[in-house]
Structure formats: structure tokens, C-alpha cells
């Protein structure tokens, strides 16, 4: 095992043993290779560098309480990447190849897979990039698929289930109404960095995006889905510009297992005061409870038009904490995996 401070990993890049690489050329994928050199060579005209011919995934591998290594729902990530690959009109890995390369990556970097008990895991980052040289605006004919893995702990640096504040983003939209928001394209992310910097400078940890067409409904946070708890309902936006989160999908199933009613529907801003608990959810964070959402004309504005409170700062709602504990217990092998979500190494 590597000698890392497993309890304080954060969400940083670490130089691990290897990445797994396969290249698509002349209509076929090469046999996946273990590549010890993490610095790859790309032609300066590679499509990914200019036109963002690229999509990626994020999933986690866990070392369980029973010593087994589990990947959480890699088949779902494979399907989502296939959907993005189809959208980009690019070659993409089959589900079998995707899962195989994720498992290879974990195996090659086993000494970086955090031990059980530190609330840490290995974040796997499958990346699909257009790599043939091009100047013209065309889809890529040569594609490189790389799976890398990083030991990670808390995304925010805070202890699990520490609630944070959020501001509604009225300065910028995340996704056009018939745009790319529901695909995990690399190009979706850079456009939110400035808004995040403004929000952080103004003292907000999270940014909540609205539907771009009308700015009247909740879409999602910049890198995680939105869900709220109202009575015995789990409510999450139905929108075609939101990324279909695998964490959200899993939490919905767990909510139903617990007897909650799942409502996937438009959430108008007017409903925010009625929600009892609000959370951001995604692979990296699992659940980030939101204690406060502020609405203002623009992020740096002094004027506040609405202020919704769900908890005291740092505190998480009871139902949300229950859902979190269950999903983490399944990932750690402490609870029976009744839905067959985990793939063992
Ligand atoms: N929404 C966005 C925009 C994301 O980037 C992510 C992270 O991948 C999510 C939601 C959460 O999705 P998942 O739970 O599949 O990680
Ligand atoms: C997630 O995995 O939940 C993310 O949003 C990852 C992020 C770093 C893009």
C-alpha cells in the first residue's frame, strides 16, 4: 500500500502507477494497454484541443469492509458515455470494454485504493477524446479512450454531510434548452468556471442553475443533481438539460425501498420554500446537503430577492442522511446489494 494520508485525500490529482489506454483507428479499437507514462502525446491539431471533441465519465471503486473491491454501477457510466459518444458522432467503447478497462485500472493501481474506514475511494475517470489532426469542423475519425484512477476523499474538503450554502446563477446558463446539458461532454464544464469563481468570491459554495428558456424552474447544480425532500416525497427535476445522474437514480431507488414516493417533475422556483431538505448529489460528493439557497439579480449583487433556509449551517436533514448512509453502506459492502449495483474486482 502507498503511504498516503488516507483520511485527508481531498480531490486532488496524484501520480498513480498507470492508466489504461485503447485507440480507435481504421474502424477498430486496439487491445487496451497498461500505460505507465501518464503524459500522453497528442498531435497539436487533435480535435479535442480545438473543438472539444470529448466526453468523460466519473465513477468510484471502494475497498469494502469485507476486503472486497467494488465498482459502483460501471455499466451505467458505460451507457452514459455511449450516449455522449453517439451525440458527438464519435467511436465509443462497448459496455464490456468500458467495464473491463475500469477494472484493469483499479487492478494496476490497487496500492492507491484507499483502505476501508477512511470514507475514501478511487475516483475513476474514463475519458474519450478525438485525437486525429484536423482543422475542419468534423467529428473525429481517430479516438483515444483512457481510464485513469485517483484516490480521493471529500470533494469539498469538509466532513461528509456538512451542509453548504448555494446561490442561484442568473448571470450565466449551464445548458441551452435543446443543447448538451444531458450529455457528459467536456465542453459543458469550462463555461461554468467563471460563474463558480464569482460565487466562491461572494461566499457561496454551490451554484444552482435554472432552466435556460424561462429561468422559472430548477435544473441542477454545476456538477451535481438537485433533489429535495417534502413530506414523504423525494422530488427531483425532470428536465432534458440536466445530466442523468447515476447517484440520483440510485438514491431514488433507495428512497422507494424506504417507502418514499419519488416525484420526477418540473420544480418551479416557487416550490423552494415548501421543500424541507435540499441536496446536491453526484459521484464525487455523493450527497452535499444545502442549508441555504439565495436568489439575487446577479451573483455579486448586494440585493437579495429571496433566501430559502433548510437547516442550520453544516447540518444535514434526517431523511437525506438516511439515504446517504444506505448508498454508502452498499458501496462499502456493509448492506446487501439487493439491486446488483456493484461489480467486484
Ligand atoms: N450533474 C452534473 C453536471 C455532473 O457533472 C455530475 C457528475 O458527474 C452529476 C450531475 C452527477 O452525476 P453522477 O451521479 O452520475 O456522478
Ligand atoms: C461527480 O462525479 O459528481 C462530478 O461532478 C465530478 C466533477 C469533478 C465533474
Give a written overview of the molecule.
- By secondary structure, this protein is α+β, with helices and mostly antiparallel strands.
- The chain has 2 domains: 6-152, D-amino Acid Aminotransferase, Chain A, domain 1, CATH 3.30.470; 164-331, D-amino Acid Aminotransferase, Chain A, domain 2.
- 21% of the residues lie in helices and 28% in strands.
- It contains 6 helices and 18 strands.
- It has helices at 47-51, 74-88, 95-108, 190-201, 246-257, 318-331, and strands spanning 19-25, 28-29, 33-35, 54-56, 59-63, 69-72, 121-130, 143-152, 164-169, 206-210, 218-221, 225-230, 233-237, 261-265, 277-282, 286-295, 306-309, 342-344.
- Strands 1, 2, 3, 4, 5, 6, 7, 8 and 18 form a 9-stranded antiparallel β-sheet that branches. Strands 9, 10, 11, 12, 13, 14, 15, 16 and 17 form a 9-stranded mixed β-sheet that branches.
- Helix 2 (74-88) packs across helix 3 and helix 5 crosses helix 6.
- The longest helix has 15 residues, at 74-88.
- The relative contact order is 0.15.
- The model has no long low-confidence stretch (mean pLDDT 96).
- Pyridoxal-5'-phosphate (PLP) binds at residues 58, 220, 223-225, 243, 245-248, 282-283.
